[in-house]
Amino acid sequence: MNPEGGARTAEFRSMVGALHGMGLQVVLDQVFNHTTTSGQADSSVLDRVVPGYYQRLNAAGAVETSTCCQNVATEHLMAQKVMVDSVVTWARGYRVDGFRFDLMGHHSVENMQAVRKALDALTLEDDGVDGKSIYLYGEGWNFGEVADNALFEQATQGQLSGTGIGTFNDRLRDAVHGGSPVDGGSTFVQGFGTGLATDPNGDPINGSAAQQLATLGHDTDLVKLGLAGNLRDFAFTTSDGKKTAGKDIDYNGQLAGYADQPDEVINYVDAHDNETLYDLSVFKLPVSTSMADRVRMNTVELATVTLSQSPSFWQAGTELLRSKSLDRNSFNSGDWFNRIDWTGKESTFGSGLPMAADNQGKWDIMAPPLQNPALKPKASDIAAAEASALDLLRVRSEVGLLRLGSADLIRRKVSFPDGGADAAPGVILMQIDDLAGKDVDPELDGALVVFNASPNPVTQTVTGLAGRDFALTPAQAKGSDAVVKTTT
Q1: CATH number for the domain that contains residue 436
Q2: Which of 105, 121, 274, 457 could join 181 via S-S bond, C-beta 3.0 to 4.6 A?
Q3: β-bridge partners, 267
Q4: E strand or H helix at 84
Q5: Which of 4, 11, 42, 139 is catalytic?
Q6: What's the mean pLDDT when you consider all of the chain?
């Protein structure tokens, strides 16, 4: 589409403008890392313009396909120019507010810095848009022929320091719901937000009671680190009783903390890839878990990203207990498995066994829960989940201390009291003390955030807060959750 004219241009700009008028921003998904075809295929564009230039080739001259399709050689100057010119066109011509880069690790840091520089040059006076306000983020995964900087310095987790470009944080994600969505063997592995040690599902994969407590301790450390922006140099008392910096905490053989600033991390617990948050919990929570508790756990899991110091990402419909009927890869599953009932009247859980591709190997463990009527949320359950989730957004908006915005302020003001080896299982206390260092919130002296992922009420003593008074923020005091309102 031509941003300088044409009916389609006008229509898209009108749509973006209408969304802006509703107080919404628009982020575009950019897939510059691969094309659907290459060579002389009818739908091949770049490779037919300059054969063998725009597609990344292996030593035998064949196109690399590690992304899933025909990889683009964005290390080549004109391929990078396609990225830069396209993004600038969307920003200047269509007034979009941000860009998400698919498989960003297949691009170079140089690619992303070029995009950032070009956007930063856009001004309201000359271009009608403040390019510096446009946020860039993407999937910073490390794999394929470019892995470990084999061809260039990749735009991956921990390699974008100082750029202001974010990467998705799989550390917090995996710690919250247990295992990994890309590990087919971790279906029933529990985590901080799915009952590990505090509400065991009985599957032997989670280990003995002692092993579960140890794993929960480490998962809790990863959640705490994510709450503090997943900073490499943020130190706190970890579950082994030692004061540990984020870069010294293990995540599957990698350093857990990799960010220098909180905006270099996107915290999330579910996305369009893999199972939805509700579907993951169907597998991981005990089958006997009541629907009321499933709703509550959905809120607790969303709270770990919403009340964190980094940007918070929600999958569409996750506040409505969105289900894809346990589908783990629904990109080609059609509307039946991807539909969302925005009215909240009917859950899509139990819509049938998901498509055979990527799912057939688990049909035998999918069928029983999909046929269990107790696992299909009712309209009242969906309404309760949505109300609690929206309360979380209101809390984030009301409490500016949840968005300190810099690593320096996080290091000075954020702490996790009552941590260490004797911490209550399934409980996190996060203190944001505005009496420490420069005052950043004239309305508050501090904030205390308590996450209780265990099935029971807990009482915690925080000696450092003696003499200070805390009350529920208005969003919770006037909110939808009767249990939260009893908190003292």
Answers
A1: 3.20.20.80
A2: 274
A3: 169, 312
A4: helix 77-94
A5: 139
A6: 95
Is 301 one of the annotated active-site residues of the chain?
Answer: no
- Examine the residue annotation and report whether 102 is marked as an active-site residue of this protein: yes
101 within a domain of the structure (yes/no): no
Is 152 within the bounds of a domain?
Answer: no
For residue 289, the 8-state DSSP code is -
pTM (predicted TM-score): 0.95
Q: Hey, what amino acid is at 481?
A: D
Contacts of 368 (CB under 8 A, 6+ apart): none
Q: How many CA atoms lie within 13 A of 100 on its CB side?
A: 12
Please tell me the predicted confidence (pLDDT) of residue 3.
Answer: 46
Residues paired with 451 in a beta bridge: 428
Range of the domain at 357: 169-485
Give the closest residue to 33 by CA, choosing from 64, 77, 8, 2: 64
pLDDT band of residue 283 (cuts 50, 70, 90) is very high
> Token pair for residue 360?
């057939």
Rounded to whole angstroms, the Cα distance separating 70 from 319 reads 35
- Closest CA relative to residue 428, chosen from 220, 244, 225: 220
- Say which residues have a Cβ less than 8 Å from residue 196's Cβ, sequence separation at least 6: 178, 190, 206, 212, 215, 216, 219, 426
First-to-last alpha carbon distance for the chain, in angstroms, is: 57
Give the orientation angle of helix 363-370 with respect to helix 277-284, to 10 degrees.
Answer: 100
Residue 283 forms part of a structural domain = yes
Sign of CA dihedral 415, 421, 422, 426: positive
d(CA 222, CA 228) in angstroms, rounded, equals 10
Q: Please tell me the distance from the alpha carbon of residue 415 to that of residue 379, in angstroms, as a whole number.
A: 39
Q: Is residue 362 part of a domain?
A: yes
pLDDT score at 8: 72
Q: How many domains does the chain have?
A: 1
pLDDT band at residue 5 under the 50/70/90 scheme: low
Take residue 123 and report the two structure tokens written for it.
């001004």
477 contacts: CB under 8 Å, gap ≥ 6: 471, 485
- DSSP string spanning 406-446? SHHHHHHHEE-TT-STTPPTTEEEEEEETTSSS---TT-SE
DSSP count for the chain of H helices, then E strands:
15, 14
Q: Which one of the listed residues 11, 47, 64, 102 is annotated catalytic?
A: 102
